[in-house]
Amino acid sequence: MLSKDDITTAAADLLRAEETRQQIGLLSRRHPEITLDDAYAIQSAQMAQKLAQGRTIIGWKIGLTSKVMQDALGISTPDSGVIYDDMDFADGCTVPANRFIQPRIEAEIAFVMKAPLSGKVTREQVLAATDYVAPSIEILDTRIVRADADTGQTRKIFDTVADNAANGGIVLGPQKHDPNTVDLRWVGAILTKNDEVVATGLGAAVLNDPVMGIVWLSERMGQYGQRIEAGQVVLAGSFIAPIECPSGTRIDADYGSFGRVTVNFA
């Protein structure tokens, strides 16, 4: 368990890393005793600072939902992060070259809510609280190094959670669908990077049902005194592995009849 000073310092270091685009070392190496509660406390400390600076929360993201990603980190639970208003990118836009440190993208199904969700909820309650679902791209960034240069140690879940679940931005597609009329397990996407297909995936990779990601998130947030609010967008989790997006990358996420989302990196 970290001290309050440790949490405050870690949060300040991460905010500075985001501002200067200079990564910090692994928190799991700095604090071998760190817990998941500590990591979410660091995330919440950053949230308090951002809100004080005038940012607003427009939604939440769920990460590490696929079996492949969980096995890679040696974990059995997803994680979550906050989406702020300055993370909202328009479909088809070009992201400025100096915005992120090491941008990557993932393909996700976005849920836009019409009613709040709090604590333990059922799949049916999630669907009833959802206004619509849409195709989306999540932009990832890492304010913490992915691997320690000296030891080779890679990030642990404590690092990703503290780093706002590696959240960078969201690109929401314009298409809107009633989640009750679409089998989200079979919603898939073909990801093209600079005119080359680099990934494909299906919604079923997200906990076997993307809706269950929202069920998990509502309960997780309830444990920390938070809730999903009406009007917020929730990224249910990626069904592809992250795609590196260095300068000059063009991304096209083709969801077939579900829609299409594109983004470019200057």
Please outline the helices and strands:
Blueprint: H1 4-20, H2 27-30, H3 36-52, E1 57-63, H4 67-73, E2 79-84, E3 88-89, E4 94-95, E5 104-113, H5 123-129, E6 130-140, H6 157-162, E7 167-172, E8 188-193, E9 196-202, H7 210-223, E10 233-238, E11 243-244, E12 250-254, E13 260-265
Helix pairs in contact: 1-3
On the 0 to 100 scale, the average pLDDT is 94
Strand content: 25-35%
Tell me the quaternary state: single chain
> Helical proportion?
25-40%
Tell me the number of helical segments per DSSP (H or I, 4 or more residues long): 7
Unreliable stretches covering 5 or more consecutive residues = none
Order of H and E elements: HHHEHEEEEHEHEEEHEEEE
Q: What is the end-to-end distance?
A: 41 Å
Overview of the molecule:
By secondary structure, the protein is of the alpha+beta class. Helices cover 27% and strands 29% of the residues. The chain has helices at 4-20, 27-30, 36-52, 67-73, 123-129, 157-162, 210-223; strands spanning 57-63, 79-84, 88-89, 94-95, 104-113, 130-140, 167-172, 188-193, 196-202, 233-238, 243-244, 250-254, 260-265.
